[in-house]
Records
---
Amino acid sequence: MELLELIKKRRSVRYYTDAEIEEDKLKKLVEAAIWAPSGHRIYAFDIVILQRKEDIRRIKAISPGIHGNPQVLIILCVDRQKAFDKAGEDGRDVLTIMDAAIAAQNICLVATEMGVGSCMIRHFDRVAAKGLLDLPENLIPELFVSLGYPRSIPEPPPRRVIEEVVIFWKR
Amino acid sequence: MELLELIKKRRSVRYYTDAEIEEDKLKKLVEAAIWAPSGHRIYAFDIVILQRKEDIRRIKAISPGIHGNPQVLIILCVDRQKAFDKAGEDGRDVLTIMDAAIAAQNICLVATEMGVGSCMIRHFDRVAAKGLLDLPENLIPELFVSLGYPRSIPEPPPRRVIEEVVIFWKR
């Protein structure tokens, strides 16, 4: 499939079947995240993978952004101090966020290609999540990706057309 | 090509040949950006495309992050007020940044598939860029993507392996 087609096919899928995602597929998703570009080559994120129902239930309880029933949660955690040491305030406050988002998009696109549903989630209690995950002091959970085989595929929200988005094209 | 392979093939390409990028390819890149997911469905970015040498030269002069010779600059501009109105402080300060980064990654991946080199650039004087681009009051340039046919393809920087990146895997 052409990539643009795949990009258009990606939906935010929140409701999943009970089918487990195979371990080799999860590893492929992690690899997709690892190969995301990193501003200033900070590479400041680590990953937590949750598959146990009880762990996911606890995270869901502090995450208004999780509406459905994730079979797996990939949690992108960033080391803001490492980012600051490598790239100053912009590194800490901007590049870490960009890196996490790009890694998450790689995950979601590769998931789509494998027939796995995915959804990025940013609306959660970060302090509570840090505690529940028992993260090392330096790490903050920045972005979740929920995963599972889709129970149904939602319709895409309406998108703007090129002429609306491109405000100046100087050629 | 499998997507993971394409993800690994993407490099930050900064030096380009003089060949022009075809307009239909540029439109495809904009479409890839449009189909990026948007946190809280803010869709708060607009795009400026620069192809004139003189315009690019002026932007380069205030952008330490541009090392090479972009043939085209796609400039992702965000409307922080619109984002705040739709999704509060997190929308303004986090989701706009994530959205721009995800859109840029879509652009870079589709560019790679088409044989076009690309590089994300965040290191530039945002106030000066806003002035040079004569952007509407509500828009701030958030992220650049430089584009062109690659003069050469750099080696990938070393990446971590799965076991280093995944700090907990609870299954």
---
Amino acid sequence: MDDSRPALAIDIGGTKLAAALVEPAGRVLTRAQVPTPRDLDAEQLWRTLDALITDVLDRSGVALAADLAGCGCGCGGPMEWPAGVVSPLNIPAWRGFPLRDRLTDRLGGLPVRVHNDAICMVAAEHWRGAGRGHDNVLGMVVSTGVGGGLVLDGRLIKGASGNAGHIGHVVVDPDTGPLCGCGGRGCAEAIARGPALVTWAQAEGWRPDQKDATAKDLATDGALGHPVGLAAMRRAGRALGIAIASATSLCNLEVVSVGGGLSQAGPLLFDPLEEALRAHARLDFTRQVAVVPAALGQSAGLVGAAALIFAADRYWHGD
Amino acid sequence: MDDSRPALAIDIGGTKLAAALVEPAGRVLTRAQVPTPRDLDAEQLWRTLDALITDVLDRSGVALAADLAGCGCGCGGPMEWPAGVVSPLNIPAWRGFPLRDRLTDRLGGLPVRVHNDAICMVAAEHWRGAGRGHDNVLGMVVSTGVGGGLVLDGRLIKGASGNAGHIGHVVVDPDTGPLCGCGGRGCAEAIARGPALVTWAQAEGWRPDQKDATAKDLATDGALGHPVGLAAMRRAGRALGIAIASATSLCNLEVVSVGGGLSQAGPLLFDPLEEALRAHARLDFTRQVAVVPAALGQSAGLVGAAALIFAADRYWHGD
């Protein structure tokens, strides 16, 4: 047994498919990615992933599965966990797709572990990113949705069905907040997800007729001083700050790492977030929490997938 | 070593001091309690507790500390944990009182473990009460304050400084909610704690001049059909339901046990709680949560204190 063997890490999202070899210490070696294909069926999509894996293994000179410590994979949810039967919301071609079994077959019986991509993100940030050295960390992804994962007392929290970490559905405005995709009202996600911000801003007169306007455009205009862009970022930051305050009281968090596309807006988002958080987190122990940008950026999914192999005692409680 | 030895369990609150012997399976044997003395200094209060311990040990024929498996003690917070140096909000005589050390001396070096009373309550409900058989449980105490404790993935959650479980400071009405004792606005506790309900009801015309009116009076009047009493219980139930919805999304809870004086209001409180919870907990995994009255009643504190000794792997992470 060679303890320096790398893991094959895979990150499957609605935007891109990525694969890489990752060292036991978390460094990403050979890496490949392609945009997530559209309009393919389940098997065609699998062949795209298969080719990506072959590319990474060939380029890094790994001929045998025995040269690998294992394969970790993050994938958009929901999924049956730990069976790894996936139905990613943003990948309609896969409904009930047995991803873990297919990867196990493909890799000659190598240990394969599949988990939610938001779980992989918090595992990465806790293992090698902004949460390193802390035992109580919430990792958030603010993008098309608002997702997250929880590490408490040094271990990834699973919850009743592997769904702990859904910070996006913490309620921040139960009376006057917008309806949420979940069916509730006033969830943090209903306010702070990118598309919701765009909808709100367009109703306020920002680029009202541009169908493909994005939250990134909105943040850019905000940075240039557009009042609706600024107000939209304040709106998102406030909703996230209140949700983080509630999570901090309930879970006695030390660090909250915020990643995802919208986190690129920087102080435009983080300043109002801090203001709302500090207004509501007033107990001695909640004041201690630090909110920081996610440290691993685009690599978080791959590093977290590798953590399922290299730090299984903390991040993998399945079989 | 005799594995059937009982533990000495102690429960220290602002209303009563209780002590008992508890069997390894959780059954409460000999028990004694006294109202918490007022207007005593720290040493006088200690002597009251000392006498209570002597009474329980004498009556049960336990002569030697070696006849006991250990001593578990729940005490109102805050405290330095695991040192057990306590400063209970409702017991002004003890500020920085070294309770764990004093008990250790008193009991001849027997293992002594002291934890927050809300932590003991959730440990009890998870070990032998309403949460038994479930791995993800929030235990709540709704009374003068709104406190709680969290068991996730089968283990008591400590958090950064032993403060996980503060459900009372989950924000449920950030815009128009009342100021909270913590300094924030719209915390569940600011709305649903007994004294806040009384203040609200008196402003609405219920017993406006009765200085010693209690939340119990309010619930009683509500049960008799008084519209302000009913509205107050709805107000509390809704605040608690929203907080529970947020906690369920974040922690993927299975069971929430609700105890404390206000929980005695029954359907008057639980019906609006359920209504608000079900309006906001709409994801498949959050719909699964069950809210139940705490099962152990007045014994919860003692049973939970004993759990610190008999099920230390789950409920005691200190030294």
